[in-house]
Amino acid sequence: MNRILGVIINRITIGFLFAIIYQIVVGMATSILSIPLTGNISDLFLGIHKADSEGILLIVWWIVSTILITGIALLIVKYKLYFSPYRGEQNIEIPPKITVITAIVIGSIISFMFFLMDTITGISVGTTSADVQAISEAAGEGNYIPLYLSMLFSILTGFAIVAITGKISRVKEITKDIGLQDITGIKHIMNITKAEKTLLSDTIGQSPGALIHVGERKVEDIRIDMIEYDAETITEATNVQIEDCLKSKNEPNVTWINVIGIHDPKIMELFGNSFEIHPLHQANIMNTELRPSIEVSDNYLLIMLKMPHYDSDTGDLDLEQISIILGENHVITFQEIEADFFDQIRKRLRSKSGTIRDLKSDYLAYAIIDAIIDSYFLVIEKIGDITEDLEDELMQNPTSSTMQTIQTLKRRMISLRKSIWPAREIVDFLGRDSTLFISNNTRPYLRDVYNHVIQVIDTIEGLRDVIGGLLDTYLSSVSNRMNEVMKTLTIIAAIFIPITFIAGIYGTNFSYVPELEWKGSYFAMLIGMAAISGVMIAWFKKKKWF
To answer: N or C end of the chain, less CB within 10 A?
Structure first.
């Protein structure tokens, strides 16, 4: 209760502070431009209506004011810890850079809110618009309704500003560059809500084996694809029903069932009961927060691995959980999203390339595991390219964004390391221990995958060391640049110290200074100053301080 009350007090403080600062800005602009300004979207409408020099000025002012609104709102929210009464509230993460389109969008929303406030308050005052003077005059006449409305709106503005600035990262993602390139992805961005993401803490107290999807829901509808093949024939079907999958359960050929989407407990329970999957394993498949692992059962092997997906444009790293059920004649894979690295496996099955069609389900499981491990090489390669660019940037002109990129890469490498280390034990177990589901023909291939895992781990460790070195290089570069600046300022100050001393002598208040009567004394003083400065500069260069 205290936390909620503290947050409300913070919002009220933000609202009043924003209203006061913005009224000051509008008042100064009105005084400078000698035009009655409202500070909201009505300035734009009035400028379009006038269509003259004053109208153009109003339109320009509206664009500038919306950007000012955004700047004021962001600064207040970013530094609210310095004036907020309640210190227990966390800061909202605001990106260090936003686009002009984003500023206009955010500022226009708040500008329109002020327009509504002016309209409602103006009606109660009896004028077409309301400002501070009109509200104060109404209060002087005993009409406090406009004042109360203005205070209420300021409070609501505090909540609105925090809500709007809290979403500015998504607005920036939609409006990056000129703002409209990713219009097709708006639905996907805006539909990711907290209701679609279940945390691991939400499962506390649940019975063992409770089918609860833990993680972010990444697809709307679950889709099931199925491939049946043997040495001679292959059948491929997409978006099949569960009943079709059950028919292939006891067939002698190899069946690969790929389930895209793991958020529906009914489908998971139906699959689990039909293929005799243990309830605890069903729950593990739906829990995307678990570490990679392997479980051995009498009828199947459950292998859980993480597949990385790296977005080069945004720098986001997504670790998708892939669960593999390996049975005698079937392989069932559970994915979170449709995108994967299994297309090459499908092509090999269709074209009968290599021996994949001649071997059993264990070889198919090996091919899937190998594709998952190989996906790490692609992600590491992209991160390695970014690291090389950062090295060049550090040598030329490191900025604060360089530091942020380095910190982001460090977090990415930690995530990759946490996901690949357990895979080492899993693949080693499959390649060495004797299980009924792995034939001796497949074990050499799994030992080759183990070598790939070791190579991935070594590469990740090497990149971690390089990125850690980049951080040290950045700090050293910033420190050296600061030292260069301080050295330059010190040299300039040292040059002017003797000159100031000489000028100070002739600024004394003695009535008799002998050389003042000499006509060339002024020029002699200037020559002396120049000589002293030249000697000092030459000495600094000799010492290599320049």
So the answer is: N
* Number of structural domains the chain divides into: 3
Q: What is the pLDDT of residue 158?
A: 66
- Residue-wise pLDDT for 314-327, tens only, equals 778 899 999 999 98
- Asked whether residue 42 falls in the same domain as residue 153, the answer is yes
237 and 172 in a single domain? The answer is no
Q: Considering the entire predicted model, what is its pTM? A: 0.58
Output the DSSP codes for 323-370.
EEEE-SSEEEEEESSS--S-HHHHHHHHHT-TTTTTS-HHHHHHHHHH
521 shares its domain with 486: yes
Give the integer Cα–Cα distance in Å for 157 and 113: 8
Which pairing describes strands 254-260 and 330-335: parallel, antiparallel, or unpaired? parallel
3-class SS string, 119-167: HHHHHHHCCCCCCHHHHHHHHHCCCCHHHHHHHHHHHHHHHHHHHHHHC
What is the predicted pLDDT for the residue at 225? 92
280 three-state secondary structure: helix
CB 222 within 8 A of CB 336: no
Tell me, yes or no, whether 124 and 269 share the same domain.
no
Q: In this predicted structure, what is the pLDDT of residue 176?
A: 45
- The answer as to whether 202 is a domain residue is no
At 135 the pLDDT is 64
**CA angle, residues 98, 76, 72, in degrees to nearest 5:** 60
Q: How far is it, in rounded angstroms, from Cα 458 to Cα 417?
A: 10
In this structure, the dihedral spanned by the alpha carbons of residues 277, 280, 286 and 292, taken in order and rounded to 10 degrees, is: -100
Query: Which segment of 104-108, 164-168, 235-239, 359-363 scores lowest on mean pLDDT?
Result: 164-168
Residue 118 sits in which domain range?
A: 2-189
